[in-house]
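Q: What would this chain look like folded?
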Amino acid sequence: MARFDMLAGFVLCAGLFAASSAAAAPGVELFQPRLDQRPEGVRVQGAVCRAVPALTAGGVELKVQKLDSTGAVVAETKARRDLRPRDRACAFYSVQTAWTVAPTESVRVCATTHGRLACV
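A: My prediction, written as structure tokens:
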């Protein structure tokens, strides 16, 4: 989860490819996203990778979730990206939400592929 201040135009770079900022599920790696708070909403950018080669291509379902101070989901934006077959493929995403985040709220990104889930 990433928290950030409400400074207009302030970009929080949470270490997009830092090893300590990754979440993994069997076969899936999701990296800590970059968040850009704008008046029209939050832009969330990041990467999701397949941790092992696969014989077929597959899609990745992404959920960008806004959480309140208790951790409950209060808003959600969905996206889909494709992963190439046969290599440790990564998909990069840039999702624009229609909502902003208050100082007491946070953002979580979850990725699902082939029934595997990772959240960061």
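Strands lie at 11-12, 22-25, 28-31, 34-38, 41-50, 58-67, 73-83, 90-96, 106-113, 116-119.
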